[in-house]
Amino acid sequence: MQVIRMTNQTKKKKTLPLRLNILFLLIFLAFSAMIFRLGLLQIVYGEDYKEEVEKKEEVNVSTSVPRGKIYDRNYNAVVDNKPLNAITYTRSASTSQEERLKVARKLAEIIELDTKKITERDKKDYWIVTRPEKAEAKITKEDLQNVEDGKMKEEDLYQLQLNRITAEELAEITDEELKVLAIKSKMDSGYALTPQIIKNDNVTNEEYAYISEHLEDLPGVDITTDWQRQYPYQGMLQTLLGSTTDANEGLPQDQLDYYLARGYSRNDRVGVSYLEYQYEDVLQGQKEKIRNITDKEGNIIDTEMISEGEAGKDLVLTIDMELQQEVEAIITDELLAAKKKSGTQLLDRAFVVMMNPQNGELLSMAGKQIVNEDGERKVEDFALGAMTSSYTMGSAVKGATVLTGYQTGAIQPESVLLDEPLYIKGSPVKKSYQTMGYINDLTALQRSSNVYMFKTAIEMGNGEYRRNKSLPLETKAFSTFRNYFSQFGLGVKTGIDLPNEAKGFKGKDYTPGLLLDFSIGQYDTYTPLQMAQYVSTIANEGYRMQPQIVKEIREPDPQEGIGPVIKSVQPEVLNKVDMKASYVKRVQEGFRRVMQEKRGTAYGYFMGADYNPAGKTGTAQAFYDGPNEDKFLTPTYNLTLVGYAPFNNPEVAFAVVVPWAYENASDSHPINNQIGRRIMDKYFELNEKQEEEGLKNENIEKIQEEAEGTTEE
Predict the structure, then answer these.
(1) How many whole angstroms separate alpha carbon 133 and alpha carbon 97?
(2) Where do the structural domains in the chain lie, given as residue ranges?
(3) 392 in the Ramachandran plot: left (φ > 0), alpha (ψ -120 to 50) or beta?
(4) Is the pLDDT of residue 245 over 50?
(5) How far is CA 711 from CA 699, 700, 705, 707, 708, in A?
(6) φ, ψ (nearest 5 deg) of residue 16
(7) Calculated CA dihedral for residues 247, 253, 259, 265, nearest 10 degrees
(8) What is the Cα–Cα distance from 710 to 458, expressed in whole angstroms?
(9) Contact at 8 Å (CB) between 191 and 38?
(10) Which of 256-265, 679-688, 704-713 has the lowest mean pLDDT?
(11) What residue spans carry the region label Disordered (predicted)?
């Protein structure tokens, strides 16, 4: 029995170490798994979990760069950028109203801001932030219950507070608080992590220096260099150059999605009209891109440069600003002189367009308008009106009428017709300003016969004039006229590289008598720019050129001013008129006689001009439709003049348009011819001067090169 007992104990001893070994093995495996798991978390996923804990976020921000400059054809700056010292504020996503208010109070002790632009809403927001107990009292228990019951949203409570602030409570805000508010409202208007300009106008050296030394005490505040559009020619041509938004406006609300989709920031300045708008993608430039790295509270902890900014490309215009200055001065002078005469109550504007008929380059595009401001008469820029406003142009369009008559077979070159008063049943007598008898087409242009054009229109309408009888005409003649007129640019867009160009008005009444009025330019309306294109097409042997106001696009060059050419705008032929070249030559001769032969309607003003001019005058009976509503539909007269020179090799074509020049025929005065003669004299005078200067500069450069060569030897 004893032996057996010892055997069982032995078995038990053998079993115990085995179980312990299994237990130790399991413990070892568990610890190994834990160690492996910890290693995996630390080594493999450590950075991921660390970033998750810290919740870092990378946000890309673009900062604006100076817009491209705009030069005239001689590289004189027309639109420049004025550098400005600027104070900015960049708020983080977590910055509270109270923190911004604290910074604003510190800034108010340093800088001065205009408080006149503070809105009532700004004041109410400030009142709520600075008077929290009073603001809280604006919310009733009933309001809170309505939120709890779902009858009102919680965010509606703030609007209730705003609505319940009284005028007396707003009056509590002191002048010192208004200074703080002016700053804080700018800080609040910026977007998170995007620099917002607090002040860039008249930042003093003291303000700039003090802030630069105390940036640590002003979280989010920084100093930088900003820019502002500058106009060396004091707003000349301003309406065509267009405008940009300012730093406070940022992107236009109606185009917000458009610009955001193209990488713009909400506070970017963009062109909103005409040249600034049309060439926005060129002038804007490449913005500097910065990556802001923030912590979990939204505070910026690091900043990295992604790409450096590049200023916008520069535009070189076809406009000659020296000529533009002279033309605007002439218009202003003649406009004010005419305004002093009797019968010119409605006269308030005049336009001039000058272009190179060979390539369509606009040399001058000027408009002036008289306005009354606080009882004082002022003359303002209205160059824009040369392409956005239209008028009946009168006899200046008779060149197109004669050419249409040729092409349709209504008349032939050298056709002789009787200029006589036309008595049509049911219509007032229709006649020329004087009875001319039998005349041909050239004399009709030279002396501006209305009846010659009337009879051309009657033939086109398959009518037959009989004294005191009715005159039925085919209305399709309107379409025929307009088709040919459009080939000269009349009644259609000229194709200028600017937005919002007007086409003019096309009458919808096809009464036969109105067809006769159409033939002498007293029915449809045209713009001054269309008139310049029309006469250029005649001067250019029937080729209609697209008017161009931009000549080149160039790289900016801070050192040299003008950088290399990126793109040179090439002349573009829109169409060639569907007429024989001999027909165009014939009308050119008629235009030459207008200015160079006796009895020509412009001979008295252009005789003796050594630049061999040609052109056509115009007077149109019209009805006033300008800004003075009390005089709306008053009968008046528009004056026009188109022309070009030299006749044998045209280098400049022009149109002068003076709407509502006078009210009564007895008060007529030749402001159109006077402006025309003076601008053409000035063009050739400046042209000669610039050629002499160019030759002089070439000689100086040649002498310098020779001198340098001698030195080297």
Answers:
(1) 16
(2) 58-317, 324-394+495-691
(3) beta
(4) yes
(5) 18, 17, 10, 6, 5
(6) -60, -50
(7) 40
(8) 77
(9) no
(10) 704-713
(11) 690-713
**DSSP letters spanning 383-401:** TTHHHH--B--GGGGHHHH
Q: Which pairs from 268-272 meet CB under 8 Å and 24+ separation? A: 268/62, 268/64, 269/64, 269/67, 269/244, 269/245, 270/244, 270/245, 271/242, 271/243, 271/244, 272/242, 272/243, 272/244, 272/245
Phi and psi at residue 663, to the nearest 5°: -100, -30
Three-state DSSP at 449 gives coil
Contact 635, 663 (CB under 8 A): yes
Three-state SS annotation for 240-264: HHCCECCCCCCCCHHHHHHHHCCCC
First-last CA distance in the chain: 134
DSSP letters for 574-629: EEE-SS-HHHHHHHHHHHHHHHHSTT-TTHHHHTT-TT--EEEEEEEEEE--SS-G
- What is the helix (H) or strand (E) element at residue 487, kind and residue range? helix 476-487
CA proximity to 449, closest of 428, 422, 482, 483: 422
Q: Quick one: DSSP state of residue 448?
A: T
Q: Where are the beta strands (DSSP E) in 205-330?
A: 221-230, 288-294, 300-307, 314-317
CB atoms within 10 A of CB 364: 27
Residue tagged active-site, from 395, 432, 519, 536:
395
Helix (H) or strand (E) holding 446: helix 441-447
As a whole number of angstroms, the distance between CA 574 and CA 540 comes to 13
C-beta neighbour count of 696 within 10 angstroms = 10
643: CB partners within 8 A, 6+ apart: 535, 591, 595, 602, 613, 614, 615, 616, 653, 654, 676, 680
* CA 388, 389, 391, 396 torsion-angle sign: negative
Confirm whether 58-317 and 324-394+495-691 share one CATH topology. no
| Tokens 């096309």 belong to residue | 506
- Per-residue pLDDT at 22: 74
Contacts of 678 (CB under 8 A, 6+ apart): 330, 334
Burial of 175 (0-12, 13-18, 19+ CB in 10 A): exposed
Query: What's the 3-state SS for 74-121?
Result: CCCEEEEEEEEEEEEECCCCCCCHHHHHHHHHHHHCCCCCCCCCCCHH
Indicate the pLDDT class of residue 682, thresholds 50, 70 and 90.
very high
For residue 432, the model assigns a pLDDT of: 96
Say if CB 522 and CB 394 are below 8 A apart.
yes
Strand partners, 562: 556
Residue 20, CB-side half-sphere exposure with 13 Å CA sphere: 6
395 is catalytic: yes
Burial of 194 (0-12, 13-18, 19+ CB in 10 A): buried
- φ, ψ at 387 (rounded to 5°): -125, -10
335 CB-contact burial (10 Å; exposed 0-12 / middle 13-18 / buried 19+): buried
**Distances from the Cα of 335 to the Cα of 368, 389, 642, angstroms:** 8, 18, 18
> What pairing do the DSSP bridges indicate for beta strands 635-645 and 77-89?
unpaired
The pLDDT tens digits for 95-110 are 888 888 899 899 999 9
**Confidence band (pLDDT; 50, 70, 90) for 15?**
low
CATH classification code of 324-394+495-691: 3.40.710.10
Which residues on neighbouring strands pair with residue 224, listed in sequence order? 86
Q: How far apart are CA 138 and CA 158, in angstroms?
A: 9
Q: Minimal CA–CA distance to 199: which of 209, 191, 187, 210?
A: 187
Q: Looking only at Cα atoms, what is the longest distance across the chain?
A: 167
CATH of 58-317, one of 1.10.520.10, 2.30.42.10, 1.10.10.1230, 1.10.10.60: 1.10.10.1230
Which structure tokens are listed for 157? 């409570």
pLDDT, tens digit, for every residue of 384-393? 999 999 999 9
